[in-house]
């Protein structure tokens, strides 16, 4: 039984812990139970609609307001080792969003096969990434955590959008140009079209906001362009005249870029993004690194010969990057960091940074290890998240199919 041995009273304690920003071990995890997502019914049957209407009339105004919260979606590829750039630049910023938004966080495994991959490693990495979401503080009672390929609407909508997207739009993508230049004739078609899959991921859920790094802004702009193109070609009054709902087919999302930590840079090059695919493991702090490994990497990281530390000097990218890591690990603001460290030399600052990173990651690593070792619980979280995600995604896909003129599927009784 999923989550067996986890007692129901722990749910309230877990929820309180999450609201206060604490990370809980598995012994404190909430038991699997119907969430706010799984309780929703998207059925079109008259009885279900009547029941839903009755329930809505009985709900207080405050509950109705909660149901109208804006929606956020984001995800990370299960490739390579999860590192501080993924965590501090993305996943950590998702945690506060789950209290104020309707949140969907997916492991985008379909994106991981645009290059050659090992099937065994992909399967393990997918679960590990989901475990990292839990370890970082994503609460499955507040957010839907799921695997992209578990919701078939992602692949189908991607094809429909590909047939609407001009080739020139995709050929202008900077990341495709850079990777295609490196891969030469071995470059795969999926690398060209994966921004359309990314657009499908976002548009399926009618996301109002999409947490992205600076390097993903171009892809989000493409998503907005695709949505507007679909709305222009297939939506509006013409759709209504064809017997459809009419109006906008797809919601056009807005980017959400965190003010700090939006782009964590390499420990070996302050001008290059920290990357899972970098050959040099010393260029990143992995979330599973031991305390001694973290200390060694920080000790060997690239610095400069200037006395004192400062933010924002383009001539000192490593100083800005390492100070940002310290700021995010300690929770201090820039002024507090500079007051403490501004006059330090690298020899004094590096041990301080290493200790802060170890202390920050220790509870996350403990929760991650327990999540990875409880596959039944983890798979239960993913199954519940996929069910909630599919309920929303299938409605959007049905709208797009209808607007584009497809015959609705005949459902057998």
TrEMBL record:
<dbReference type="GO" id="GO:0005739">
    <property type="term" value="C:mitochondrion"/>
</dbReference>
<dbReference type="InterPro" id="IPR024109">
    <property type="entry name" value="Trp-tRNA-ligase_bac-type"/>
</dbReference>
<dbReference type="InterPro" id="IPR050203">
    <property type="entry name" value="Trp-tRNA_synthetase"/>
</dbReference>
<protein>
    <recommendedName>
        <fullName>tryptophan--tRNA ligase</fullName>
        <ecNumber>6.1.1.2</ecNumber>
    </recommendedName>
</protein>
<dbReference type="GO" id="GO:0048608">
    <property type="term" value="P:reproductive structure development"/>
</dbReference>
<dbReference type="GO" id="GO:0009791">
    <property type="term" value="P:post-embryonic development"/>
</dbReference>
<dbReference type="GO" id="GO:0005524">
    <property type="term" value="F:ATP binding"/>
</dbReference>
<dbReference type="InterPro" id="IPR014729">
    <property type="entry name" value="Rossmann-like_a/b/a_fold"/>
</dbReference>
<keyword id="KW-0030">Aminoacyl-tRNA synthetase</keyword>
<keyword id="KW-0547">Nucleotide-binding</keyword>
<dbReference type="InterPro" id="IPR002305">
    <property type="entry name" value="aa-tRNA-synth_Ic"/>
</dbReference>
<keyword id="KW-0436">Ligase</keyword>
<dbReference type="GO" id="GO:0009507">
    <property type="term" value="C:chloroplast"/>
</dbReference>
<dbReference type="GO" id="GO:0006436">
    <property type="term" value="P:tryptophanyl-tRNA aminoacylation"/>
</dbReference>
<comment type="similarity">
    <text>Belongs to the class-I aminoacyl-tRNA synthetase family.</text>
</comment>
<dbReference type="InterPro" id="IPR001412">
    <property type="entry name" value="aa-tRNA-synth_I_CS"/>
</dbReference>
<dbReference type="GO" id="GO:0004830">
    <property type="term" value="F:tryptophan-tRNA ligase activity"/>
</dbReference>
<dbReference type="InterPro" id="IPR002306">
    <property type="entry name" value="Trp-tRNA-ligase"/>
</dbReference>
<dbReference type="Pfam" id="PF00579">
    <property type="entry name" value="tRNA-synt_1b"/>
</dbReference>
<keyword id="KW-0067">ATP-binding</keyword>
<keyword id="KW-0648">Protein biosynthesis</keyword>
